UniProtKB/TrEMBL annotation:
Keyword terms of this UniProt record: Coiled coil, Transferase
Coiled coil start-end: 285-312
Highest rank taxon of the organism: Eukaryota
Protein name, per record: Anthocyanidin 3-O-glucosyltransferase
Organism: Hevea brasiliensis
Positions of transmembrane segments: none
Single GO term (MF): UDP-glycosyltransferase activity
UniProt-listed Pfam families: UDPGT
Length: 333
């Protein structure tokens, strides 16, 4: 099934939810080896029905913040055999404990699910052969520590063009170094980025967030981006647009205390102006600001919790071992 998801993400979600079941069953029928378990996004509730009909245990994988789904009625989850979270226990302990009390099957926080194993321990350093280092990493290598604001608005949804004009102008006029990953906003930088900015069409997000020169992340608060910034210990400027992004931003600001909220702007008189944005960015990246210093310390604590969870014998590492043991021993059948 082919679908132009970047052009119509809501339509893509609808197609996956309503038209994917039959092709998926056809795929199962073609497999030579028996399927011991299915791991499926909780959003795809039809997968649980497929698994139950075929006597295949299903692990429902929450790919968004745990709290977001906990506040909603998800009737099909109770029919699964396992529940997996991309979060880590220490990131959402009260919610995970509450869910454990309401489900009779195993729950496993396995996160933060970020591709940390792909990180090169020397990724912050320029090599002798700069041809092998992407331009954006070469640029980051030349910037002072914690001086760069990384800006990424997500892959599918964005603010209005009028608001984007203000954001671009505000960031550019702030006098703060920035790396902007653009899906289409590059044309907005017709006047250039100045000496302090770089605009690229794509970058390795986790590698950038873990770079020593990156001191802040302007994000739409998608859960994957949120987890990657938490793993990297980078404070966030939260600019949510839709779905779980608003609750994710509350997690960032109120629970973890590692971010500030960008004031919500709309068309017309309610736009967040370039002057407001420039002032916000300047304050957020001010290393001498007491509030910023405290926020960076909190971000470091969250980073340590994330890395402890995925370390050998950490909570998530142990949970993954338990889950694989359950599957291999066929407990759910």
């Amino acid at each position: 099934m082919s679908y132009p998801r970047a052009k119509d993400f809501p339509g893509f979600l609808e197609a996956v939810a309503t038209k994917m079941e039959a092709p998926f069953e056809q795929l199962l029928d073609r497999l030579d080896l028996p399927v011991n378990a299915i791991i499926a996004d909780t959003y795809l509730d039809w997968v649980i029905g497929v698994g139950n009909r075929r006597n295949i245990p299903v692990a429902s994988l929450w790919t968004i913040q745990t709290l977001y789904k906990a506040l909603k009625s998800v009737s099909m989850v109770s029919k699964a055999q396992y529940l997996l979270f991309t979060s880590a226990y220490k990131l959402e302990p009260s919610v995970i404990d509450a869910l454990k009390m309401n489900f009779c099957f195993p729950l496993y926080p396995l996160g933060p699910m970020v591709p940390y194993f792909e990180l090169d321990p020397n990724s912050n350093l320029a090599t002798s052969d700069d041809q092998k280092v992407p331009e954006y990493l070469q640029w980051l290598n030349s910037q002072p520590k914690n001086s760069v604001l990384y800006v990424s608005m997500g892959s599918f949804l964005s603010v209005s063009s009028a608001q984007m004009d203000e954001i671009v102008a505000g960031v550019r006029n702030s006098g703060v170094r920035f790396l902007w990953v653009s899906r289409g906003e590059k044309g907005l930088f017709e006047d250039g980025c100045g000496d302090l900015g770089l605009v690229v069409p794509w970058c390795d997000k986790l590698r950038v967030l873990c770079h020593r020169s990156v001191g802040g992340f302007w994000t739409h608060c998608g859960w994957n981006s949120t987890l990657e910034a938490a793993f990297a210990g980078v404070p966030m400027l939260a600019s949510p647009i839709i779905w779980d992004q608003t609750s994710n931003s509350k997690k960032i600001m109120d629970d973890w205390k590692i971010g500030w909220r960008v004031k919500q702007g709309f068309e017309g008189e309610n736009l967040v102006t370039r002057e407001e944005i420039a002032k916000l960015v300047q304050s957020f990246m001010d290393k001498e600001n007491t509030e910023v210093i405290e926020m960076r310390e909190k971000a470091k604590e969250v980073q340590e919790a994330c890395q402890a969870a995925i370390s050998e014998r950490g909570s998530s590492d142990s949970n993954l071992d338990f889950f694989l043991r359950y599957i291999s021993q066929g407990h759910a059948k």
